[in-house]
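During data preparation, a discrete fold description was generated, as reproduced here:
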Amino acid sequence: MRRCAPFMSFLLILTSASAGAQEIGDPQAGYVFAAHNCAECHEIASHDLMSPDSNAPNFYAVANNRDITSQALMVWLQSSHPTMPNLILRPNDIANVIAYIVSLKDK
């Protein structure tokens, strides 16, 4: 049984990490944050409007891109990009924006 202890500890950590990764933020708070911080460049609410900046994707299009997952959005929002302002987002703001974008996905 002692040989199994490290493996069991690893499984417990892995399970805890994946359970935490499934937590989602507040879509309404994400919308408010996006309206104040993202809407200057991105269309954040409508699926049929272009973004104010033609190089910035529409949030609806992002949500409905089958290659985009919550985890991909997490990585994207925590990385700097030459075409975006270097925003430093708090973890709860990231979770909320992701929750909002995911809420735009067609059901």
In short: The chain has one domain: 24-103. The domain at 24-103 is CATH 1.10.760.10 (Cytochrome Bc1 Complex; Chain D, domain 2). Confidence is low (pLDDT under 50) at residues 1-21.
